[in-house]
């Protein structure tokens, strides 16, 4: 069952990465930031041995928080990928950290 989970996770990560590389109209700043956090989350799961099933809530969380951060940026000033990345990191990295702590790492 883990192989099916990995197949689903990698399908989304690889296809979205490929889509951003070949289709510039889809390079929305929030999508770029979410994709970066997806790959960071995948790397954490691979290198720590955390269950792959945690990616099924971490990846949508990264996408939603990226969209919220982009909307916050657009209300104030011109959106910047770096500041959106940092705002999403404030939510995502503690979520990953506490997941690792709960799993005993």
Task: Provide a descriptive summary of the structure in words.
With 105 residues, this protein is mainly α. The chain has one domain. Helix 1 runs antiparallel to helix 2 and helix 2 packs antiparallel against helix 3. The radius of gyration is 14 Å and the shape is flat.
Index terms:
105 residues, flat, 4 helices, mainly alpha
Mean pLDDT across the residues is 87
Total tally of structural domains: 1
What is the number of E strands? 0
**Unreliable runs, pLDDT <50, ≥5 residues?**
none
Main sheet, how many strands, which sense, barrel? none
Q: Compute the CA-based radius of gyration.
A: 14 Å
Assign the structural class, choosing from mainly alpha, mainly beta, alpha/beta, alpha+beta, or little secondary structure.
Answer: mainly alpha
Globally, the shape reads flat
What series of H and E elements makes up the topology? HHHH
Number of helices: 4
Topology diagram in text:
Layout: H1 2-22, H2 29-48, H3 55-76, H4 81-102
Helix pairs in contact: 1-2, 2-3, 2-4, 3-4
């Amino acid at each position: 069952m883990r192989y099916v989970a990995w197949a689903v996770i990698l399908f989304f990560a690889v296809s979205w990465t490929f889509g951003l590389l070949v289709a510039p109209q889809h390079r929305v700043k929030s999508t770029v930031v979410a994709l970066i956090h997806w790959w960071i989350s995948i790397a954490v799961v691979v290198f720590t041995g955390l269950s792959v099933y945690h990616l099924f809530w971490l990846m949508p969380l990264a996408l939603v928080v990226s969209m919220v951060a982009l909307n916050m940026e657009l209300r104030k000033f011109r959106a910047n990928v770096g500041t959106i990345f940092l705002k999403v990191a404030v939510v995502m990295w503690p979520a990953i950290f506490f997941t690792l702590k709960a799993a005993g790492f």
